[in-house]
Amino acid sequence: MITAPVTVPEREHYLNASYGLKSWLLTKDHKRIALLYLATITFFFFLGGLFAVMIRLELLTPQGDMVQSETYNKLFTMHGVNMVFFFLLPAIPATLGNFLVPLMIGARDLAFPKLNLASWYIFTIGGLFTLYALLSGGVDTGWTFYTPYSTTYSNSFVIATALGIFIAGFSSILTGLNFIVTIHRMRAPGLTWFRLPLFIWSHYAASLIMVLGTPVIAVTIVLLAAERAFHIGIFDPAIGGDPVLFQHLFWFYSHPAVYIMILPAMAVISELVAASARKRVYGYEFVAYASVAIAVFGFLVWGHHMFVSGQSVYAGLVFSVLSYLVAVPSAVKVFNWTATLHKGSIALETPMLYTFGFIGLFTIGGMTGLFVAALGLDVHVHDTYFVVAHFHYIMVGGTIMAYLGGLHFWWPKITGRMYPEILAKLSALVVFIGFNLTFFPQFILGYLGMPRRYHAYPDEFQVLNVMSTAGASILAVGYLLPMCYFIWSLRYGKIAPDNPWGAVGLEWQTLSPPPVENFDEIPIVTHEAYDYVSLPNGSVTPKKEANVR
Amino acid sequence: MSAEAHGAVFHAPRAHQFDTAEQQKDASTLGMWLFLVTEIMFFSGLFCCYLVYRWFYPEAFAAASHHLDVALGGFNTAVLICSSLTMVLAVNASQAGKRRALVAFLILTILLGGVFLGVKAVEWHHKYVDHHIPGPSFHFEGPNARQAQLFFSLYFVMTGLHALHMVIGIGLLTVLTVQARRGKFTPTYNTPVDMCGLYWHFVDLIWIFLFPLLYLIDRHTK
Ligand code: HEM
Ligand SMILES: [Cu+2]
């Protein structure tokens, strides 16, 4: 490959192979489906963001002045539902994962391309259901749908929303299934399990959770809807049903689901760390096994959401100890990334800035996870802003940071264009500052006792709340900027070379943007992942001339 | 998985992302098994609810299960086991390339599935007549009437979802039958028959668990 010329001779790739709406809506190309997902989840992200803005505006003052409590309940519910089920769960796997899994393992596509397209349609239909619920009056149960409020007392559109989540769940199941089969059966010759990029390992682990966990939330939603529609009594204490059983079923999925959100983020970070430090990820095998360990242990700790829901003290103890255990593999990853960076020749481009952001914020989020996993302390901070801050540090500070970092890193591969580096660095900084200003005060608020899910609060909490709202507006700018310059770059960005980072992954060995079938010739893998020692310029095939920075 | 396979002649339609027909079949089989795993998790949620409530209210559940018709349930169990047999024979026929036998066994399987659903509908109708449908009109003689309603809620959800799976299975088999008549399946290409077979056996297996749990446990008391 010759270094990027100023004018590209028209060469066929997946973006210009065919034109027209139909060629997109009926595509079976995993790369195009990734972009369909990207557009859809971006829509839901900004929708969820809109609710967040309204929440933060209401909390600017101690009184409930902008909205009443009923409306406020709907705002935080629809914020949570949108962000969790329609943005964060599919965010990385369905976009970057969809795009990169076949490329990274040297395959022409996923194992089941039609299923992949179907999963996007299913997701979109689920999203439309929820959108319908939202337009016709909204839901007010919280994203957790606790019974008996959701089944008996709420007067909002519970069934339509839950049905939307049920439907979207199947897209998650199909994506997970597709990934697992692809990773098992479609690897290029020579690509053994321990030569796989860690991106693949993490996605494999996340897929396991999608496949094993999602059906449980599906059946739980069926029961919830049946209970609400026909009063069959499964969760109704009046006839002996147990509302806490709902919580068990819900968290049996929803705790592992938080690992569906974070494992793909860890996948991205492993790649970015290795490419930026130009080193093999320290303790590769441990990081790989840690992904699987997280997936397995993640299924055993759901009860830590129910310490004060009336489960037995004994159960609480066991869940508390197990929650500490699940933090171990997460910590292993953080340590190994840091060790990889140690004495690496680190390139401080935008993806790396996001990586630093991720490592720092995920660590804070994880550590405070240990706080709330401690039985005694959780009695104090449960259902306060401390918990809100905890999970936002992980989900927003972790997953969205990694998502943005990944988008920047692979943008040249996806679109064939470079993003504007200086502006991108600036917005990474804006995101980091805005994020911390928004959520750090919430740790303090929670510790001082401000409960979550209320639209009014005592005067003494105002200063911290104003800080939080101010931070949120900075954060909003930080998110809008990349969206603008990414779109700008599609037309005006510099033409990207095939391997702008000099990275060794297979996805960098093909053209930018890749041809329809990904590789002109299926590569034969002879090296382990991240072998920067024997492949210093990032080219796996030595006879080709590489693009060095 | 080698590139030499490209020139080879395939009897089977092979999608572009696969190197060989064998790889394609492997992938489909693994995919189907994974799908069945998700189905197991789906029903596990229900089995879990059942276990919890059975453990909470053993007398109510025993009393309520007496109102199920063991004879009809037993008959249906036999019907489903037979349908699994005809399904296996269908898979076998497709591997041997016997088109007429394949079509015949598929139709037989569909018919047995239909019989099962018919009997199930009769049972549900009995429950309706006896006011055993959960909800405002529910009525149950005995000391644990309210908890007995829980039993019937679970009964309807579990057998209902199982029946839904049967309906889907019958739909799939109908498509297969049409394709089989057109001669789509050959000894080298019969993956869809194989996959639907796996699904059908799985649905049978769920019933093999449902039947004792709902109909048989604790029958000897009283
Ligand atoms: C390091 C391991 C982690 C531990 C030990 C941990 C522990 C906990 C505990 C004990 C709670 C319950 C707090 C309460 O309600 O009183 C909680 C809440 C929560 N965590 Fe974590 N967590 C960890 C990682 C994560 C990750 C990776 C995510 C997301 C990607 C996450 C997302 C959440 C969410 C969304 C909630 C709030 C649920 C609600 O709405 O009530 N956590 N965490
Ligand atoms: Cu949790």
CATH class designation of chain A: Mainly Alpha
Parts with pLDDT < 50 across at least 5 consecutive residues of chain A: 1-6, 542-549
CATH superfamily of chain B: Cytochrome c oxidase, subunit III, four-helix bundle
Q: SS-based structural class of chain A? A: mainly alpha
Q: CATH architecture of chain B, please?
A: Up-down Bundle
| SSE sequence of chain B, one letter per element | HHHHHH
Using only C-alpha atoms, the radius of gyration of chain A works out to: 23 Å
In DSSP terms (H or I, runs of 4 or more residues), the helix count of chain A works out at: 15
The hetero molecules present are: protoporphyrin IX containing FE, copper (II) ion
Query: Beta fraction of the residues of chain B?
Result: under 5%
Give the terminus-to-terminus CA distance of chain A.
14 Å
Helix content of chain A: 55-70%
- Say which CATH homologous superfamily of chain A is assigned: Cytochrome c oxidase-like, subunit I domain
Question: In summary, what is this structure?
Answer:
The complex is a heterodimer of chains A (549) and B (222). Chain A is an all-alpha fold and 549 residues long.
